[in-house]
Design a protein that fits this description.
Layout (H helix, E strand, L loop, with lengths): L1 E4 L5 E6 L2 E4 L4 E6 L2 E4 L4 E5 L5 E4 L35 E3 L4 E6 L4 E6 L8 E3 L5 E4 L52 E4 L2 E7 L7 E3 H8 L3
Parallel strand pairs: 14-15
Antiparallel strand pairs: 1-2, 2-3, 3-4, 4-5, 5-6, 6-7, 7-8, 9-10, 11-12, 11-13, 13-14
Length: about 220
């Protein structure tokens, strides 16, 4: 059994029999040749000598066959927190250091929300090349998806991903990020460079999970 920590020295996961689990013993992925893949076979990162999972943001590793789910292990004894580790230099990043605590007023609890600040300024483009706005924390920017009165943030606009009945926001829309079955979700671009798909379809890669993205938008 091997403990996994993040750069802050926090215990975040453990490895047992070449399977990765979180601190509550929920299955996160599998280890093959020191590389870590999630439960759908999508590459997460590589094991480092200091017990972190590190990935190169400029390289997209090929996915593997979907691994078989292992038996749930016994919860191990919690290790002591480590000292903060050396910061990783670009283009490397800690796979477990892109989340932050935020208060969920619905549950009254603090929860982990993925931090997508690196996407600020990104354009959202539908598969049919329709512009769907910019990821911006400026609610007065006409193109911002956070402008509730703009073309890309209003729940009534036909070019808004927040329109539950529109083809770009419906869970059944061919070009919608909320359709878990479509192979044509919106794409994200920064400086005209493709970054990832915005989708709930777990088989689309590379992907930003729409639900995680929406949870983060609520915090900015």
């Amino acid at each position: 059994m091997r403990y996994i920590f993040n750069t802050n020295g926090e215990y975040v996961a453990f490895i047992a029999n070449n399977y990765l689990f979180n601190t509550e013993c929920d299955w996160l992925g599998v280890i093959q040749n020191n590389k870590v893949y999630d439960t759908f076979g999508v590459f997460i990162g590589e094991l480092s000598n200091d017990d972190r999972i590190v990935r190169n943001k400029l390289i997209n590793e090929a996915r593997i066959m979907k691994p078989m789910k292992p038996m749930k292990p016994m919860k191990p004894m919690r290790p002591m927190k480590r000292l903060r580790m050396a910061r990783l230099l670009y283009p490397f990043e800690d796979a477990f250091l892109n989340s932050e605590k935020t208060f969920n007023h619905g549950t009254g609890k603090y929860e982990n929300v993925i931090n997508f600040k690196h996407l600020l300024g990104a354009k959202i483009i539908a598969e049919d090349n329709t512009f769907l706005g910019i990821i911006s924390d400026n609610r007065f920017n006409h193109d911002s998806v956070l402008n509730k009165y703009g073309s890309f943030g209003s729940p009534y606009s036909q070019t808004s991903i927040f329109n539950n009945y529109g083809k770009y926001g419906s869970e059944y829309g061919q070009f919608s990020p909320f359709n878990s079955f479509t192979s044509t979700p919106p794409r994200l671009y920064i400086d005209e460079k493709f970054i990832a798909y915005l989708s709930t379809n777990e088989f689309v890669n590379p992907r930003i999970d729409t639900n995680q993205f929406m949870n983060w938008l609520k915090t900015i």
